[in-house]
Amino acid sequence: MRTVGVEEELLLVAPETGEPKALSAAVLARAARDDACEGVFEKELYNQMLEFNTHPQADMADLNAEIVRCRREAARHAGEIGCTVAALATSPLPVSPSVTRGSRYQWMEEQYGIAVQQQLVLGCHVHVSVGSDEEGVAVLDRIRPWLSVISALSANSPFWQGRDTCYDSYRSRVWQRWPSAGPTEVFGSAEHYHGRVADMVGSGVILDEGMIYFDARLSRQYPTVEVRVADVCLHAGTATLIATLTRGLVETAAREWWDGHPPLDHSVSLLRLAAWQAARSGLAQELLHPETMRRLPAENVVGALLEHIGGALADSGDLEQARAACARLLNGGTGAHVQRELLTRTRNLREVVTGCVRHTQA
């Protein structure tokens, strides 16, 4: 069974007003004194963010329990200094991001200017174990068309600087400001993949391999494929679903590689269109079908994803849970839908944030 780990980035906010708070250093200092949180929390580019990493898990119930626990521990440590956490991929309220101190982050701010000064977005990254770099690159080549569906399911960023963007995942649009971000071509081999990464680092436009912000990449630190397209999800159960579907995609792609099936050779241009469509409307309207690259209702495209990875999900015992979770999202709406409903009900973006704080820790 392939193991799965999740990285989530959480927004630090004032519990009464919902305003983002630049207090990550203080929260991390609190967590560092807690033996139970050793290695769990990390600093990020902005002082308004707190990241946690789960352990690799083979059982999705165990992964879900750890995500819930990490969110509650984050809230507990944040509460000790007068703030709390919200699983929001962008801040609904206006914010002036504060860049974390350090030579790496200073280099990024000098290199990319206003893009860094404005880009406070929060994502969910999923690591799935692979047996080798060759298998990993074969997986990267075969999951490319399906990642837009993962993005749509996770959509949780409709607001930006106090305004409705008309996008369900505006985070993914802001993320494209990075020069190395987005979909990739078919690599064909680990040698080609590593050569491309070396050329990109050698250009001097990015600092190092850690700034390879492909939609999916080989991890530098672990024997995993790292999928990076998801918004941080409002509910822990949605994050678990994203991890479940991602493992299913990785396993299915590896089996296709073993069986000699070539990847779909969609152009990067088409993949960008699919990603834009997923960001624009999430599950509310249409998506591009990953095989045909033509519009279909989101329900049909999610169904195609479940059919595509159904064998892998069945073998891991996750098929029925994944179907039920997808149905709940299609019927009840993504995090973006929940945020807009909160605004309709309260007419106050501060109430949107405080409402999402409650969803984060549910």
UniProtKB/TrEMBL annotation:
The keyword Ligase appears for this protein: yes
Catalytic activity: L-cysteine + L-glutamate + ATP = gamma-L-glutamyl-L-cysteine + ADP + phosphate + H(+)
Coiled coil: none
GO molecular function, one term: ATP binding
InterPro entries in the record: GCL_type2/YbdK_subfam, GCS2, Gln_synth/guanido_kin_cat_dom, YbdK
Protein EC: 6.3.2.2
Domain of life of the organism encoding this protein: Bacteria
BP GO annotations: modified amino acid biosynthetic process
Record key words, sorted: ATP-binding, Ligase, Nucleotide-binding
Functional description taken from the UniProt entry: ATP-dependent carboxylate-amine ligase which exhibits weak glutamate--cysteine ligase activity.
Family: Belongs to the glutamate--cysteine ligase type 2 family. YbdK subfamily.
UniProt xrefs under PANTHER family: GLUTAMATE--CYSTEINE LIGASE 2-RELATED
Name the UniProt record assigns to this protein: Putative glutamate--cysteine ligase 2
The organism of origin for this protein: Streptomyces guryensis
